[in-house]
Amino acid sequence: MRVVVGTRNAHKIEELQQILSPLLPGVELVPAAGDAPDEDGTTFYDNALIKARAAHAESGLPSVADDSGLEVSALEGAPGIHSARYSPSGLDADNTALVLSRMAGHDDRAAEFVCAAAYVTDRGEYVIERRWAGTLALEPSGGGGFGYDPIFIPEGRSVTAAQLSAHDKNDVSHRGKAFRALAELMATLPRS
Ligand code: IMP
Q1: CATH number of residue 43's parent domain
Q2: I want to staple 47 with a disulfide (CB 3.0 to 4.6 A). Which of 39, 85, 141, 157 is the partner?
Q3: What are phi and psi for residue 119, nearest 5 degrees?
């Protein structure tokens, strides 16, 4: 089964392959071609659907996409859907530095990763959203993962997400949970 992935983020494609392969044996993930659509939705749910719809329209194949980000309580949910481009450069290191600088003086360091996972075929559209709770570290640590992983300490852990193995992260992460639930749904649907 070929499934197009509506993302240009190589890290995400890698994570998705690891998450989906055991649940959908034989699934081949193909990166979307063409320009990325404008993510002009106001929610993770809307933006995931925009990306999966665009990949489906362009390829004619069943397509998945996710939209994800970090919500920080003390920052009223920021960076939220703007996580990828929170700082002017949009670089991971600048985005994390900006979050940490805006957290100065806040005692409440609660944060959650959110992932909306969308699946679009000729027959229908499906979206599943999952969360991963934790707190923000005082400074970045760890070399794994991507994005805000070096400053996110998952609930029940004493290390950052960037210090977890890829396998351990996928087991508990927002993206792991959302795509495992989506894969279970996909397995019950006709393959068209
Ligand atoms: P998207 O590609 O538009 O969904 O943007 C997602 C952005 O949210 C990424 O560029 C990261 O900054 C952040 N993000 C989402 N998921 C993760 C994760 O698992 N770890 C770290 N950062 C993440």
Answers
A1: 3.90.950.10
A2: 39
A3: -135, 125
